[in-house]
Amino acid sequence: MKFSKKRFLAMALGVCFSATALVGCGGGSDAKDIKIGMVAELTGSNATYGTSLVNGAKLAIKEKNAKGGVLGKQVSTVVADNKSEPSESANAMTKIINQDKVVAVSGIFTSSSAIAASSVAEASKIPFITVGATNPKVTVGDDGKVKDYTFRVCFIDPFQGTVGANFVLDELKLKKTVMLIDNSSDYSKGLASFFKKAYTAKGGEIVGEEAYLQKDQDFKTILTKIKTMGAEVIYVPGYYEEVGKIVKQAREIGITAPIVGGDGWDSPKLVEIAGGEALNNTFFTNHYSVDDPNPLSKAFVDAYTKEYGQKPDAPAVLGYDAMNVMMDAIESAKSTDANKIREALAATKDYKAVTGSTTLNDTHDAVKGAAIIEFKDGKQLYRATVNP
Fold first, then answer.
1. 77 neighbors 83 (Cβ within 8 angstroms)
2. 268: domain CATH number?
3. Using the 8-state DSSP alphabet, how is residue 147 labeled?
4. For the CA atoms of 37, 237, 148, 75, what is the dihedral angle to 10 degrees?
5. Are residues 247 and 266 in the same domain?
């Protein structure tokens, strides 16, 4: 059979496209290294989260490469900034999958951004581990189905909300709470609802629910109203930028009641914004404490402090854990094929992570304990760890 030049060119291009498809979004088995992408809040209102989680992940990669890497190859990473915005998270995820050709993705601390990024990962069929996004909708869609390619290494808000409610009732012995909720945040609204459910089920009373929006600056009008409600405690499940201003302004108008929140509080910026004295008599649930006596935790704190000149926060340790879980899954899969990595992630059981033994359950969520942290003169004090 004779072939025209035109037909030959068309066939050659077809072979080229097929080869590209076989390589997929990650460099295939012939790649010199294994490239794992990261999406993180490097700028914007949640920038300390992204900086910390990327630092933790890069430390995990450095340690792994020093031991020979994964599947006999060195691991590399490419980082995309989501600017602390859900829409930018989708854009960043699209970029590192389609342009940078990563085999898998880790990162993102906030729930709304993780939900947006997850939709891209699912459509692209690329494994994604979120570092600290705690809203249940991150791994389970609105249709109730578990997302095939999305996982997380942190606890979820039904558990965190219950831990917070039990702490207020059983440890602080306070039965009247007002909630101050960020209505622009899936995380804040979700955590508030789970706190309320657990708190009222055990006899606590929600005497009021007030709302604000991310990037608000002046909270004194709302706080003045809250001051008249007869609440014994204020529950603020928000992120550090707004929480710091809320705590500071609450103390300025004479509110001395305890203020309690969730893991979104964990940032060194919180103390800078609120002030150490204002944070006295405040508490929050968290993934981790640097004062945890676990030897694995101590080794990580020492290594992180040596590498970056400061102690890690929760995003840092979760970034470290997430990257290690991902690399372990690739080793277990013995492949960089996305579906095989996904299967290995789903089978993760009793992985010895810094934040605790990590098993990913049927909904791709980590089952692990939550730490109770108290602020004292601007310093975090570890109170206890509550296990499921």
1. no
2. 3.40.50.2300
3. P
4. 20
5. yes
For the residues 115-144, what does the mean pLDDT come to? 97
pLDDT of res. 13: 35
| Residue closest to 264 by CA, chosen among 158, 358, 185, 378 | 185
Whole-number pLDDT of residue 212: 97
Domain coverage including residue 355: 22-155+294-368
**Lowest-confidence pick of 21-35, 46-60, 322-336, 343-357:** 21-35
Query: What's the pTM value of the predicted model, to 2 decimals?
Result: 0.89
Comparison of pLDDT for 225 and 384, the residue scoring more: 225
Both structure tokens of 229: 């409600």
Q: Could you tell me which residues are beta bridge partners of residue 209?
A: 179
d(CA 156, CA 163): 11
> Across-strand partners of 360?
366
CB 271 within 8 A of CB 279: yes
Q: Residue 17: pLDDT above 50?
A: no
Residue-level pLDDT at 29: 54
Contact residues for 356 (Cβ-Cβ < 8 A; gap 6+): 368, 369
Residue that is last in its domain, among 286, 302, 321: 286
Q: Which two tokens stand for residue 13?
A: 């291009």
Q: Would you say 152 and 129 are in contact if contact means Cβ atoms under 8 Å apart?
A: yes
Q: If DSSP codes are grouped into helix, strand and coil, which group holds residue 119?
A: helix
Which phi and psi angles does 168 have, rounded to 5°?
-65, -40
Q: Which residues contact 266 (CB under 8 A, 6 or more apart)?
A: 240, 284, 286, 287, 313, 314, 315, 373
372 in Cβ contact with 283 (< 8 Å) = yes
**Separation CA 275–CA 294 (nearest Å):** 30
